[in-house]
TrEMBL record:
Localisation per UniProt entry: Cytoplasm
GO cellular component: cytoplasm
Role this protein plays: Required for the formation of a threonylcarbamoyl group on adenosine at position 37 (t(6)A37) in tRNAs that read codons beginning with adenine. Is involved in the transfer of the threonylcarbamoyl moiety of threonylcarbamoyl-AMP (TC-AMP) to the N6 group of A37, together with TsaD and TsaB. TsaE seems to play an indirect role in the t(6)A biosynthesis pathway, possibly in regulating the core enzymatic function of TsaD.
Keywords from the UniProt entry: ATP-binding, Cytoplasm, Magnesium, Metal-binding, Nucleotide-binding, tRNA processing
Keyword Magnesium in annotation: yes
Pfam family, one: TsaE
The family this protein is said to belong to: Belongs to the TsaE family.
Species annotation: Nesterenkonia jeotgali
Domain of life according to the entry: Bacteria
A biological process term (GO) from this entry: tRNA threonylcarbamoyladenosine modification
This protein's name: tRNA threonylcarbamoyladenosine biosynthesis protein TsaE
Length: 196
């Protein structure tokens, strides 16, 4: 999968699929908080979406709701980071499978942290599910899809050939772009959608 292409198709075996429109960062944070309330140690959440879709932003909100320590940033250059729980809840393990796939996920030793953590893997669809959960395992897949032109004020989208010289943040940038979130459930633990 290329970072410039859209995500690969959903995997076979999904039990259900739910779509939510996230209007801004506040809605994204609310959705992440609701999902965090349903996650338990040992859960795997695979995040799918193109560049700028909001995978790391969502994970930051999820980590805040799980009350884990440390700033959550894109795992692109560190591949994997463990954020410890601040109140006896599950730790959060945040992984970038895009670069890890070329090296090997085994080198990250995710199996050693899986039982006590919520594991979030960006760019992991079709790569980590069976490797971490086994052939009969359970996981959630969250696909974030940024709406075209979402960061622009309506009616002010630049022309395709225009050169951008104003890099100041707009109100839309500060509030966050509108996106679709598609949550899918796999395996015996996720035969029914979580109550969000």
């Amino acid at each position: 999968m290329s970072r410039d292409q859209g995500p690969v198709a959903a995997l076979p075996g999904e039990h259900w699929s739910r779509e939510v429109i996230l209007e801004d960062l506040s809605a994204t944070a609310e959705f992440a908080e609701a999902l965090a309330g349903q996650l338990r140690p040992g859960d795997l959440l695979v995040l799918t979406g193109g560049l700028g879709a909001g995978k790391t932003t969502f994970t930051q909100s999820l980590g805040s709701a799980l009350r884990v320590s440390g700033p959550i940033s894109s795992p692109t250059f560190i591949l994997s980071r463990i954020h410890r729980s601040q109140d006896h809840g599950p730790d959060l393990v945040h992984v970038d499978a895009y670069r890890a796939a070329s090296g090997s996920l085994e080198s990250l030793d995710l199996a050693s942290t899986l039982a006590d953590s919520v594991t979030v893997v960006e760019w992991g669809r079709g790569i980590v599910e069976t490797a971490l959960m086994g052939a009969d395992g359970s996981w959630l897949d969250l696909e974030l899809i940024r709406a075209p032109g979402a960061a622009s004020t309506p009616g002010t989208e630049p022309e395709a050939d225009a050169i951008r010289t104003d890099f100041s943040e707009t109100e839309a940038d500060l509030l966050g772009a509108r996106r679709r979130a598609v949550l899918r459930g796999y395996g015996p633990d996720w035969t029914q959608p979580p109550q969000l």
